[in-house]
Amino acid sequence: MTAFDIPLYGPEFGTAEIDAVTDVLRSGWLSAGPVTEDFESAYAAALGVESAVAVSSGTAALHLAVLALGLGPGDEVVLPSLNFVSAAAAVALSGATPVFADVKGAHDLCLDPEDAASRITPRTRAIVAMHYGGHTADLTALTRLARTHGLALIEDCAHAPVTDSVQGVLGTVGDIGCYSFFATKNLAMGEGGMVVASDPAVRDRIRRLRSHALTVSAQQRHRGGPSLYDVDDLGLNYRPTEVACAIGRVQLDALPAARVRRQDAVRRYRERLAGLPGLTVPFADRPVEEGAHHLFAIVLPGHIHREALQDRLRAARIQSGVHYPPTHLFTLYRERYGLGPGHLPVTEDVMDRQLSLPIHPGMGPALVRQVAEEVSAAWRPTS
């Protein structure tokens, strides 16, 4: 399924996932049902929370978080531009305004609390903290900032499933935690996501909104519950499938062992790239045991051209990526909100030079060495 010998991502599926999917197909129940409930319970237990709500994608998780908080026209949400577009889209779809803030720098690609503070106005209702690459954003400062101004704190944990931090398990520190289980993620189920919330009323609203805000679910009707139902809110179909949740349940059990292998790959990358002049490896000052290591990002010095390095890697059949083009520079956000180059100087500078290298549980020592050698070759003078 890939043109590369060493792909950027490499989710691992085996007989356990195949058997779990087969069991679902034999059951005859494909939409959210008992397997989904089991996955929700297991994920909540792994996080150490009372309950979790499985949804159809990480984007759905973010959108439901915004809707459950009642955000809409006239409201503003401060969030990093350095993220996949889904976070800003979830805000914009509600009618609220995404207000983009800068990241700390090449060493830390998460939201800068000081810059976020400078963007707060009387219209601000929430802050989105994105744990870039599975590394913890400055939750101490961001939580303090949110509490000081009476704002909701949404944790975008798309890169950080079941990830510990000094402040607590990521996604459980703020008001709402949103997770993604897209095909490339550490916990991969094709499409899927999860939402947790500290306020049970918010969590219950999220659960209702994911299924059209029906007062009686299809599963309840199937079990002999009332045939008629009411609708008391504007909801959507953000339910996951039993097939996806069956895969997710198996992947959840495999996550700890897969994380150890990611950590080993990161350790080897750091060692092999440490001597390259001008190269920055974000979060390299943190112990390798911290974080989910969804991405292995590097930030190149000005004299190393990213496109040329990507061409070199491509010729060696090694995939690389850019995570992410800044959201505030996309056409929609430039035109709708009057943004453009110069709005976020730190983000723009870093993202002109950022490159993601392959990282997944299958990245053993030989593959890491091969990638690191190709990257290092870009520093050698040509004759």
Automatic annotation (TrEMBL):
<dbReference type="Pfam" id="PF01041">
    <property type="entry name" value="DegT_DnrJ_EryC1"/>
</dbReference>
<dbReference type="InterPro" id="IPR015422">
    <property type="entry name" value="PyrdxlP-dep_Trfase_small"/>
</dbReference>
<dbReference type="InterPro" id="IPR000653">
    <property type="entry name" value="DegT/StrS_aminotransferase"/>
</dbReference>
<comment type="similarity">
    <text>Belongs to the DegT/DnrJ/EryC1 family. L-glutamine:2-deoxy-scyllo-inosose/scyllo-inosose aminotransferase subfamily.</text>
</comment>
<dbReference type="InterPro" id="IPR015424">
    <property type="entry name" value="PyrdxlP-dep_Trfase"/>
</dbReference>
<protein>
    <submittedName>
        <fullName>DegT/DnrJ/EryC1/StrS aminotransferase family protein</fullName>
    </submittedName>
</protein>
<dbReference type="GO" id="GO:0008483">
    <property type="term" value="F:transaminase activity"/>
</dbReference>
<keyword id="KW-0808">Transferase</keyword>
<keyword id="KW-0663">Pyridoxal phosphate</keyword>
<dbReference type="InterPro" id="IPR015421">
    <property type="entry name" value="PyrdxlP-dep_Trfase_major"/>
</dbReference>
<keyword id="KW-0032">Aminotransferase</keyword>
